[in-house]
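Technical note accompanying the year-one report. For the benefit of new consortium partners, we illustrate the data format agreed upon in the data management plan: each record pairs a sequence with a structure-token string. No post-processing was applied to the example shown here.
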Amino acid sequence: MALVACGGSQQRENELRPPVPITLTGAIHEDRIQLSPATAGAGTIVLVVSNQSTAPQTVTFETDELGGTQGGNRASSSEIAPGSTGRLTITTREGTYSVHTQDDAIRAVEVKIGPPRPSGQDKLLLP
């Protein structure tokens, strides 16, 4: 009879899961971007936005800081046709962010990102 085992003798470090992603929703109008909610905790954010303007738009979600201690954080959607929706995903840290389009006639919106959200550990039925 032979006994076979696998694994090492070292203890494995069990790290917590990252925070559960949250979804922000928004709309691009002819003169401004509307976004809800305008505050969130740091972590992964999915932005789903509807283009209600008459021109194709690209939405950018980026840090709004000058001379910060860390490099900027930025994500952009693909081009969103009028009447369509688009999405982007970004992993944020605490600070102030700007959500804007390439069209200067459309006023940007500010998003406040607070401290990191709690771990998603022990949360069931998550994607």
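Partners are asked to follow this layout when depositing records. Residues 22-116 form a domain with the Immunoglobulin-like fold (CATH 2.60.40.420).
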